[in-house]
Write a structure and sequence with these properties.
TIM Barrel; binds iron/sulfur cluster; Arsenosugar biosynthesis radical SAM protein ArsS; S-adenosyl-L-methionine
Length: 350
């Protein structure tokens, strides 16, 4: 108990430290405009939440991988896991909202002991798009996960998986040795039950994010390259590629600072700022629920411990009237969502 309290305190201190980095330095010196100043230029401040369309639930930070860019700081030693009671509170909300998409994330969500129960219950609610963010390697990591492709199929889950590149070197550099081969094996298992095949309704999408301090290039042209590379080299198929910008938070922010790339990266994000992406940033129609049930405007704010600006702070207090129209909590990391074609958990926003 004391150990976990200390851990929580050190996480809060880390979020505070990261927020200070994002608020001070180049932004405090006025070298770059703050995100608030930037969006005010086009009268888009304050950012307002619209009707809830996507409920994104983080069922725990435990993961079988420790990727260098991970914004959740997930790994095998993380013990934060959503309980069945909190899952039930989420289900109660899903039944009452008009949200069309449910998005389960982690860590590796499959490692939550109640994951399968939750998927079974949630799939009965009749949500239109039920996403599970699977890191692929979990499918091959242990015999007990080998039936996941069949399980996903049974519940008509839309599988969205990270795949930094269609070559081994670039993938293993970002996600760890052996990840590429395990991911290819998992993709073949998903293809074998119908996921990702051209005429199939079993959706399999991949997520690309850059392996260093640079922005993703055009999503459509990368998708073409990925499709060609994976099909020709490995006979693997998938539907869409989502290109995501790495936000300067968590492990990636630490990497930027350690590699002395932080300022250059922020300059690049600000230079690539696209005012038309602002109206489509995902926090305007999404709500993020943390493993312990607290509500955030997005997964990134969750990691920075920036709770929603509303009296309804927990999934058990969910109240559409209080949450719709709330002012979204922003900071300089938000530049990651408005660079170029914009970025969200579903890829480009333009
Ligand atoms: S697989 Fe995903 S959640 Fe796990 S460490 Fe990698 S980026 Fe983080
Ligand atoms: S980081 Fe979160 S709050 Fe900021 S613009 Fe992106 S989705 Fe919205």
């Amino acid at each position: 108990m004391i150990k976990s309290l200390h851990k929580r305190e050190s996480e809060l201190a880390n979020s505070k430290r990261q927020l200070e980095i994002l608020s001070n330095g180049i932004f405090q010196k006025g070298a770059l405009p703050t995100f608030k100043e930037k969006i005010s230029e086009t009268n888009q401040f304050p950012l307002k939440a619209k009707k809830l369309e996507i409920l994104q639930i983080n069922v725990g930070y435990m993961c079988n991988q420790v990727c260098s860019h991970c914004h959740v700081d997930a790994g095998p030693d993380r013990k934060e896991i959503m309980t069945r009671e909190t899952m039930q509170q989420c289900l109660d909300v899903i039944k009452t909202t008009g949200a069309h998409t449910l998005d389960l994330t982690g860590g590796a969500p499959e490692m939550n002991p109640d994951f399968r129960w939750f998927v079974e219950e949630a799939s009965k609610v009749g949500i239109k798009d039920f996403i599970v963010r699977s890191n692929l390697t979990i499918i091959t990591a242990n015999k007990k996960y080998h039936d996941l492709p069949e399980f996903f199929k049974k519940h008509n889950v839309h599988v969205v998986s990270s795949m930094p590149h269609w070559t081994k070197g670039k993938t293993d550099k970002q996600r760890g040795d052996g990840v590429f081969n395990a991911s290819i094996e998992a993709l073949k298992m998903l293809n074998a039950v119908g996921y990702g095949m051209p005429e199939s309704n079993l959706r399999l999408d991949l997520v690309y994010n850059p392996s260093g301090a640079f922005l993703p290039s055009n999503q459509k042209s990368m998708e073409k390259d990925f499709k060609k590379g994976l099909l020709e080299e490995f006979n693997v198929q998938f539907h869409n590629l989502f290109a995501i910008t790495n936000l300067p938070i968590s492990r990636f922010l630490d990497y930027l600072i350690a590699s002395e790339n932080y300022e250059d990266y922020m300059y690049n994000l600000v230079e690539a700022y696209n005012p038309s992406a602002v109206k489509n940033v995902m926090c305007t129609n999404t709500l993020s629920v943390s493993w312990n049930g607290f509500l955030y405007d997005c997964d990134f704010n969750q990691m920075l411990e920036l709770p929603v600006n509303s009296k309804a702070k927990h999934i058990s207090d969910y109240n559409e009237d209080l949450l719709e129209g709330r002012n979204i909590v922003i900071s300089q990391h938000c530049y990651g969502c408005t660079a170029g074609a914009g970025s969200s958990c579903q890829g480009s926003v333009i």
